[in-house]
Amino acid sequence: MTGTAWFCLLGTLVSTATPGVARALARDAAAPQDATARPRITPARTGRAPRPDAVAPTLGEAGYYEAPAVNVLVFSNWYDGLFADSKISGVEIIQQGERIATNGDVRLSATPGQWDATARFVDRQVDRAAGTVTVTLEYPDYNWRYRIRSSTKGAAVALAVILDAPVPAALAGKAGFNLEFLPAAYFHHGYIADDGSGVFPLHPADTMTATPQRNAASGRAEGLGAEPNAIAQGTRFVLAPEDPARRVTIRSSAPVQLFDGRNQAQNGWFVLRSLLPAGRIGTVLEWEVQPNSVPGWLRAPVIAHSQLGYAPGARKVATIELDRNDRTTAPARLLRVGTDGSTTAVKTAPATRWGDYLRYNYRQLDFSDVRQPGLYMLEYGATRTAPFRIADDVYAGAWHPTLDVYFPVAMDHMYVNEGYRVWHGDAHRDDARQAPLNHEHIDLYAQGPTTDTKYKPGEHIPGLAVGGWFDAGDFDIRTQSQYQVVRSLVDTWERWRPTRDTTAVDWTRRRTEIHVPDGTPDLLEQIRHGTLQLVAQFDAVGHAIHGIVEPDVAQYTHLGDASTKTDGLIHDPALKLGEERGGRSGTPDDRWAFTTKASALNYGSIAALAAASRSLAEADPALAKTALGIATRIWAEEQTHAPDLYQHGNTTGGPLDSERFAAAVELLRTTRDPRFATAVQTLWPAMERRFAFNLRDAVAAIPLMPQSYREGMIPAVRAYAAATVKAAAANPFGVPITTGGWAGSGTVIAGALNAYALHKAFPDIMPADPVFRGAEFLLGHHPGSDISFVSGVGTRSKEVAYGNNRADFSFIAGGVVPGVLIVKPDFPENHEDWPFFWGENEYVIPEGAMWIELAHAMQDLAGKPPAK
Fold it and tell me: How far apart (Å, rounded) are the C-alpha atoms in residues 192 and 664?
């Protein structure tokens, strides 16, 4: 239905609308229309009968409202448990193939940030016969419940906020219904608010009002608070009236204000908001939300394929993703690109129908028989891909950007330079202060009832300002990530010995130069860097710590050069704020170390130290000896007492038995001590029950264990291989696709590396195909788009990502993003126009290390040695 087809329903709507909505509808009838808009719109008068193309939305089987090219989701998704505001919740709008609005719910501020309070979900009732969805929520701290009920009303979805008890006095003037719109969807567009108009700003520049308290989303640790003022107000808003693909009309029974949340924080959205009235019960607010529906609109086909390309002898399958209403058929063509730019069709065939998955239907073209090296493109109808290669060495350099750029940029406690560009200075020279007791912190860190160190809360812990990598798009050192990366890099070194040297590291000056060789393999330098941090933790406090993280939200949200987060001077509480004396500072900006003992972290860390000692034996024998000494000593200590079982979030290690098994395997591989073989055998039954999680460690021990150990593993290997076949048939991409709030690239890479380990150890049971399917998924053969999720790898790759440079809408070469997020129930999403979706776009170091490993594995299976 056209964007203003609601004119055709005025007779019905006005007769049933509240007075406020009726006034808004009457204004709409008189509003002039753009005769040049497409599709062309004919103005209607009040009371005119609906036009035939005025399609009302219906509540479909999937539990959301559907109209041509438009969906309105009502609490199909809920706030992610990791962070309250993950921009996947409440009322959401998908319009012409893009999710352009989210977080439709009662909130307590105009532009709520990542740590602002959200309501607790109670239940959701769907009545398809009546076309209603009713959701009950509550703010338990205020003992206050409310309901949001949706229904269809003409061409709109009507939303009602229903109260059984008035807004609590403490929330009067604060509680309001918000709906957030993606800024990138409305850049270069206008809006109309009643009789006024405006243009959405490209950069926030609105007036602010000083407040007594700072908003936690503001990114500031000191000074006054400030809240943005409304840009516009009205009871009728039309967003992007000039663009049928983005036009959304909202009519309300109460005034609606438009705010720009980016005035508060770079990841803010445009927010439409109506305050809830005080002292009232029943239906206290009604909105009619009408995203413009474009009849006949079809999403352009996506040809999912590996942006990197294929080895000549490899399986080659492209998957064509089509709009569910696309009934056209076209031949799929593989085109060879000539030196003069001409293209020659080397394979043309009807695409084979795969079937339906999520909201799309799929066809596939198998061009495995094309083996001639060269440059190729794929074509389906009017859609043509970027060029890709078929070549023997197609995988050889796939890991270079990750090792050459991503990991150097992630190096903490170092000055990192690339040509004319300083990525960051020598960060966190003031690490770190003991975290306070009984404290639950941001980013899933927490301190228990004791420090488990000799340091008092707030006291400086010397020796931690060395080594380690920034964990993700932020700047903490998460120990669990550190030891995962070290072990993965060691695996790469021991299997393939890549001697690539393009990075110079001056350990004395704490300076890294990208694209400058220094005579030492870069992989060994990165292993050393991670090992230095793990060793420092044991030297400083005697055990592995949870990590080192920013003391407050202001630092946590810091973007850009990490060396500007703190003053680099150790905090001295005897000095005044801002005072500096003798290399110390009165500013308490030092990061916090969370130190409560957790045996799982000890085992995970000593597994990495034992592994690193093998790789560093020649490059740094002193550090190798120290690392192995810590590993053997801490193992022995852990056997003398009951395990420390402190757990919180994802910062205190994996399952205890799994971490202990990993430590036993790595110590066995390093020392060949029979004690560790006994430990491996003893722990194996528990590992067999969680085989998918532990199989790479289990396989790594095979050469050092009795033949019976390998034979005992065979039933688990067969079961895992059968499960892999079953999972591959569940979708056209042949890999497990997760549906949580963090997308599944890591799961896919882990599955591919699992398959590689089993294929090498049990080639008669596990084939190699799952390795390539996993890699190809990462490189573009996935739902939603054909973009590579490794920045800088493949012709079209991730160029807008959640790195520490995300405010620049940029990327870090070699970083791996989480990838395809399934917005429940059926919408695959990865935004290339908005970097702040951490669940889709945030780089994390374990996936970077695993990608280096997987790229080598692919080249190994392709039969050619990787480039050095």
Answer: 66
Q: Which two tokens stand for residue 680?
A: 């491996």
Residues 847, 760: Cα–Cα separation, whole Å: 22
* Mode of pairing for the β-strands spanning 592-594 and 433-434: parallel
Percent of the chain with pLDDT over 90: 86
Tens of pLDDT along 698-757?
Answer: 999 999 999 999 999 999 999 999 999 999 999 999 999 999 999 999 999 999 999 999
Within 10 angstroms of residue 821's Cβ, the number of other Cβ atoms is 26
Burial group, residue 641, by CB count within 10 angstroms (0-12, 13-18, 19+): exposed
In tens, the pLDDT along 645-694 reads: 999 999 999 999 999 999 999 999 999 999 999 999 999 999 999 999 99
**What distances in angstroms separate CA 334 from CA 98, 287, 424, 841, one per listed residue?**
29, 50, 44, 31
Q: List pLDDT tens digits, range 758-772.
A: 999 999 999 999 999
How many angstroms separate the Cα of 166 from the Cα of each of 282, 369, 501, 758?
Answer: 9, 69, 67, 61
Dmax (CA) for the chain in angstroms is 89
Q: Is the peptide bond before 432 cis (omega within 30 degrees of 0)?
A: yes
Is the peptide bond preceding residue 39 cis, with omega within 30 degrees of 0? yes
- Dihedral in degrees, nearest 10, Cα atoms 466, 469, 475, 476: -70
3-class secondary structure, 566: coil
User: How far from the centroid of its chain's Cα atoms is residue 779's Cα?
Assistant: 16
State the average pLDDT over residues 62-90: 89
pLDDT > 80? residue 835: yes
CB of 412 closer than 8 Å to CB of 468: yes
Cα 688 vs. chain centroid, distance in angstroms?
A: 31
639 SS3 class: coil
- Do the beta carbons of residue 340 and residue 326 sit within 8 Å? no
- Integer Cα distance of 727 and 719 in angstroms: 12
Contact 73, 88 (CB under 8 A): no
Residue 215 pLDDT level (bands cut at 50, 70, 90): confident
Residue 625 pLDDT? 98
- If 0-12 CB within 10 Å is exposed, 13-18 middle and 19+ buried, where does residue 440 land? exposed
What is the 3 state secondary structure string of 593-618?
EECCCEHHHHHHHHHHHHHHHHHCCC
What's the token pair of residue 129? 């016969």
Mention every residue, 6+ apart, whose C-beta is less than 8 A from residue 508. Answer: none
Under 8 Å CB-to-CB from 206, ≥6 apart: which residues? 228, 229, 231, 260, 263
Kind and range of the H or E run holding 694: helix 691-700
Alpha-carbon span 270 to 309, nearest angstrom? 39
- What 3-state class would DSSP assign to 193? strand
- The burial class, CB within 10 Å (0-12 / 13-18 / 19+), for 29 is middle
Q: State yes or no: pLDDT of 116 exceeds 90.
A: no
Provide the total of helices (H) and of strands (E) in the chain, helices listed first: 18, 43
* Distance in angstroms (rounded) separating the CA atoms of residues 248 and 241: 8
Calculate ∠ Cα 517-520-521, nearest 5°.
Answer: 90
Closest CA to 395 of 493, 489, 308: 308
Average pLDDT, rounded, for the chain: 92
Residue 10 pLDDT more than 50? no
| Region 610-621 average pLDDT | 98
pLDDT number for residue 401: 98
DSSP structure string for 15-74: HHS-HHHHHHHHHHHHS---TTSSS------TTPPPPTT-PPPEE-TTSSEEETTEEEEE
Characterize 175-211 residue by residue with b for buried, 16 or more Cβ atoms within 10 angstroms of its Cβ, and e for exposed: bbbbbbbbbbbbeeeebbbbeeeeebbeebeeeeeee
